[in-house]
Amino acid sequence: MPELPEAEALKDFLADHLVGRRVVRVLPVAISVMKTYDPPVSALEGREVTAVRRFGKFLDIDAGGLHFVTHLARVGWLHWKDRLPDGPPKPGKGPLALRVALETGEGFDLTEAGTQKRLAVYVVEDPGLIPGAARLGPDPLADDFDEKRFAGLLQGERRRLKGALRDQSLIAGVGNAYSDEILHAARMSPFKIASSLTPEETRRLYEALRGTLAEAVERSHGLAAGRLKAEKKSGLRVHGRTGEACPVCGDTIREVSFSDSSLQYCPTCQTGGRPLADRRMSRLLK
Fold first, then answer.
1. Is the dihedral of CA 131, 154, 215, 268 positive or negative?
2. Is residue 96 classed as helix, strand or coil in its secondary structure?
3. Which residues, 6+ apart, have CB-to-CB distance to 43 below 8 Å?
4. Is the dihedral of CA 64, 72, 170, 234 positive or negative?
5. Could you tell me the pTM of the whole model?
6. Of the residues 3, 4, 17, 238, which has the maximum number of CB atoms within 10 A of its CB?
7. In terms of Cα–Cα distance, which of 1, 22, 43 is closest to 175?
8. Digitized pLDDT (tens) for each residue of the chain, 286 residues in all
9. Which runs of consecutive H residues, i.e. helices, occur in 161-255?
10. Which residues contact 60 (CB under 8 A, 6 or more apart)?
11. For the stretch 84-121, what's the b/e string if a residue is b when 16 or more beta carbons lie within 10 angstroms of its beta carbon?
């Protein structure tokens, strides 16, 4: 899943390739991708792109005041084409969901693998009208997101840290992968209750949050869209590395599985050396 660093890199890439260019066609291939119908996607045709923005994991392409907003969800992706294929795309069983063509012959495809169709596209006059965007919490890399503001978000928060960090209404842009990375950098259990943090622990988690995301953004800066997935994977220390050695202490990275996701952590760095006994139901010892 693209998270804040990848969305930020895609924003910069699209700004370089779209701003000042005119949209000539928007062609939905999978009807499930469209979440709004008024204005129609055809209203974008003939408009010049004036800006590209990001809020949370959403990408916003501003075409003269009309906004093409997409959320790539779990397995969606954006593929830039220096030259789009001739002729309209044909609906079928492939991953192609939507195509945007520019007057230059360039453009991009949105694709989604798998059977769970969660890739979303909205055409709106105000991005604030999109429910998922309207409920977003603060951006953790914003200049005004300081430690005091972060501590205030955690006050009274009875959820475990892993769930709190992933809640887009609490903090925008962090998903499954980077929440694992942040907690590993902070040396904290993913199941520690958010409101139980001491001031020193809050500071440590804040610094890990900002530092991990800023480092990932820097690694991704300037990369073409097609290289971002590989860059993300190569930079992860614990997420997706079950059974490998922790790069900090050398202990074996372990996993906790859930019905539709999993988390990875280092027992030595994060849980006092104590692993989870039952992968699905046991509580992590703190």
1. negative
2. strand
3. 66, 123
4. negative
5. 0.92
6. 238
7. 1
8. 789 999 999 999 999 999 999 999 999 999 899 999 999 999 999 999 999 999 999 999 999 999 999 999 988 999 999 999 988 888 777 899 999 999 999 999 999 987 778 999 999 999 999 999 999 999 999 999 999 999 999 998 999 999 999 999 999 999 999 999 999 999 999 999 999 999 999 999 999 999 999 999 999 988 888 888 888 989 999 999 999 999 999 999 999 988 778 999 999 999 999 986 545 544 444 4
9. 161-166, 176-186, 199-220, 228-235
10. 52, 53, 54, 67, 68, 69, 127
11. beeeebeeeeebbbbbbbbeeebbbbbbbeeeeeebbb
- Whole-number Å distance between alpha carbons of 204 and 224: 33
46 phi-psi bin (left φ>0, alpha ψ -120 to 50, beta other): left
